[in-house]
């Protein structure tokens, strides 16, 4: 019996690696794709939640309180909720009171380079884990270079790219491209360059969108 190949769709995801809903949303999408028996070409695009963040970063709890008005009690509840959702989806959140928020401009430059050699998705997953699971400062050259090496990228080239900023303008241009198209928050997922899905919609909702696309094909 001949097995038919899975249908392939394109999914562009605008996200930041310090956004918990971005990894949750992706993991939900990933489960939906498996359930719907559809393969996807995933292309990640840059978005900075905190483009003006100082080099030393900010305490995460203080940052969310100042930016979103989150109370200490609300922060505890939100972190517990996110951690439980991550566990259900196979991703480990490891929050701590001293965890900090960082600028991600360098991380997006590294991801841009990884995309030119077919390792962008793998690096994206590594950076999510670096920040949320291992609580590393992903704004630093040392951490980013190590992450690149961990997935098989050349660490010397990674270091040179981050030091000379050769992809900085490309990242700025791509960020502006999505902002000009109305993206103001992440995750923003564009499926087959037609259907926009925002936020972590849940596995069942993603399945519904994918099944609709299969009917349209």
Could you walk me through the main structural features you see in this protein, from its secondary elements to its overall organization?
The structure is a single chain. This protein is α+β, with helices and mostly antiparallel strands and about 220 residues long. The protein has one domain (about 5-215): Glutaredoxin (3-Layer(aba) Sandwich), CATH 3.40.30. Helix content is about 55%, strand content about 15%. It is built from 9 helices and 6 strands. The strands form 2 sheets. The chain has a 4-stranded mixed sheet with strand order 2-1-5-6. Strands 3-4 form a two-stranded antiparallel ribbon. Helix 1 (about 20-35) packs parallel to helix 3, helix 1 packs across helix 9 (about 205-215) and helix 5 (about 120-130) packs across helix 6 (about 140-150). It is globular and about 50 Å long. The model is unreliable at about 1-5 (pLDDT under 50).
């Amino acid at each position: 019996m001949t097995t038919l190949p899975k249908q392939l769709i394109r999914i562009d995801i605008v996200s930041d690696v310090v956004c918990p809903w971005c990894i949750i949303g992706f993991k939900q999408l990933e489960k939906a794709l498996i359930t719907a028996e559809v393969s996807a070409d995933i292309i990640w695009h840059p978005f900075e939640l905190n483009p003006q963040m100082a080099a030393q970063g900010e305490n995460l709890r203080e940052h969310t309180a100042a930016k979103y008005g989150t109370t200490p009690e609300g922060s505890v509840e939100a972190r517990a909720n996110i951690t439980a959702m991550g566990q259900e989806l196979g991703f480990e959140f490891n929050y701590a009171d001293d965890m900090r928020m960082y600028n991600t401009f360098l991380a997006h430059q590294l991801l841009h380079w990884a995309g030119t050699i077919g390792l962008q998705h793998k690096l994206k997953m590594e950076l999510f884990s670096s920040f949320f699971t291992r609580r590393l400062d992903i704004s630093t050259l040392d951490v980013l270079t190590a992450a690149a090496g961990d997935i098989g990228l050349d660490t010397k080239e990674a270091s040179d790219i981050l030091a000379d900023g050769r992809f900085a303008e490309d990242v700025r241009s791509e960020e502006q491209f999505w902002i000009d198209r109305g993206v103001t928050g992440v995750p923003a997922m564009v499926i087959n360059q037609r259907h926009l899905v925002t936020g972590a919609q849940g596995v069942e909702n993603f399945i519904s969108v994918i099944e609709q696309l299969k009917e349209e094909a």
